[in-house]
Write a structure and sequence with these properties.
Layout: H1 7-32, H2 43-97, H3 104-127, E1 129-130, E2 133-134, E3 142-146, E4 151-156, E5 163-168, E6 177-180, E7 185-187, E8 189-194, E9 198-203, E10 208-213, E11 223-230, E12 232-235, E13 243-246, H4 253-256, E14 260-262, E15 268-270, H5 277-330, H6 334-360, H7 365-368
């Protein structure tokens, strides 16, 4: 029997301390609901959990971005619905003005309504905004540049490969060429010319860009720089490059082909002039092209909306799965932890009782001294 070193008390004390630390950790897990509260609980789990948590929060914002983009598309499509209606009304007026039963004053009245509709289309293109950003004035179309003022990039598809190109023009579209790599390598492309000094170049995959030109000779040395810049880029992922580019073409009367413009001689040309019967009939072709232009744009917006809605659904599914993985990694099983907590409470109470009894044992040495 020893009194200087009470080994039983030391053993009981060490066991009690260990159980108290475990009990405190269990209490913290039950209080916080987390399995990992400190890096020491699981160093690897903490790192994985923090990275996963950051990704989940980013995905929620990406989903919000896609939802906002749907609102942008709906705003643009709503405005184009009215543009479509106004063009349909102009078409009706054109058909009416084409009839020989109308007088000159009747056609003048029709032209006044046509001009008012055209002015309203101009206003809609100018004033349709989302969060102060213009949608139909050309700010959301792809940007392209040339080194010759006689040639301008009208528009091009977001899917068209960005880069610098050279067009080798020929009166026969079959002999025209699109060159890249400093004008040395031909690209498989189809050329289409229109009567209003415009050219559309289409690749095999369907992506295309359009040029307007005042002089065909300019193509002998003109470089066309398709920058890949333009449209509204929507961040729909957590990393750089995970984006959707929403492109909306310009929708003012000039872009629709129904605006007033000046020719090379400085004379004012109005393609929508219904003050004469022949003028009204010619106007119908321009209005028809404008309707097809708006219809194509609305079709593109509808495709964007469907894609964005699928993106929102995909992001929601991904977020749900990541939340499940994060919960498995970080969240505590309350039932399982309660069982552990109850066990540790019993062990702490038992350890306290054993330490008390071990501390009483040295006092028994006094009986030997009596």
């Amino acid at each position: 029997m020893k009194i200087n070193s009470n080994m039983q008390a030391l053993i009981a004390q060490n066991v009690l301390r260990t159980n108290e630390e475990k009990n405190a950790a269990s209490t913290e897990r039950l209080s916080s609901g987390f399995k990992i509260n400190h890096a020491k609980d699981s160093p690897a789990g903490m790192a994985i959990g923090n990275r996963m948590h950051s990704q989940i929060k980013s995905l929620y914002k990406a989903k919000d971005n896609a939802s906002n983009a749907i609102n942008v598309v709906q705003t643009a499509d709503g405005a184009l619905t009215e543009v479509h209606n106004m063009l349909q009304r102009m078409n009706e007026l054109g058909v009416k003005a084409s009839s020989g039963t109308l007088t000159t004053s009747d056609r003048e009245a029709i032209q006044k309504e046509v001009n008012a509709l055209r002015d309203e289309i101009e206003r809609v293109a100018k004033d349709t905004e989302y969060n102060t950003q213009n949608l139909l004035g050309g700010e959301q179309r792809m940007k392209g540049y040339t080194n010759d003022e006689r040639v301008k990039v009208v528009e091009y598809d977001a899917g068209f490969p960005k880069g610098v190109y050279t067009v080798v023009y020929n009166a026969d579209p079959e002999k025209s060429k699109l060159m890249t790599e400093n004008g040395t390598k031909p690209v498989n492309a189809k050329f289409d010319y229109t009567g209003d000094d415009k050219m559309t170049i289409t690749l095999a995959d369907g992506s295309a860009f359009s040029l307007s030109y005042s002089d065909k000779d300019a193509f002998a040395s003109t470089e066309i720089d398709l920058t890949g810049i333009g449209g509204m880029k929507i961040q729909v992922g957590t990393a750089t490059g995970q984006e959707i580019q929403v492109v909306v073409p310009k929708m003012d009367p000039k872009a629709l082909g129904i605006g007033k413009e000046y020719n090379a001689a400085g004379e004012l040309i109005d393609h929508i002039d219904m003050r004469t019967q022949d003028g009204a009939r010619e106007s119908l072709d321009y209005i028809k092209d404008a309707i097809e232009y708006v219809s194509a744009a609305r079709s593109g917006l509808g495709a964007y909306q469907n894609r964005l809605e699928s993106t929102v659904a995909s992001l929601a599914e991904t977020t749900e799965n990541l939340e499940g993985s994060y919960s498995t990694l970080k969240d505590v099983d309350m039932a399982e932890e309660m069982v552990e907590y109850t066990k540790l409470q019993v062990l702490v109470q038992a350890g306290t009782s054993m330490l008390s009894q071990a501390n009483e044992q040295p006092q028994q040495a006094l009986q030997l001294l009596q």
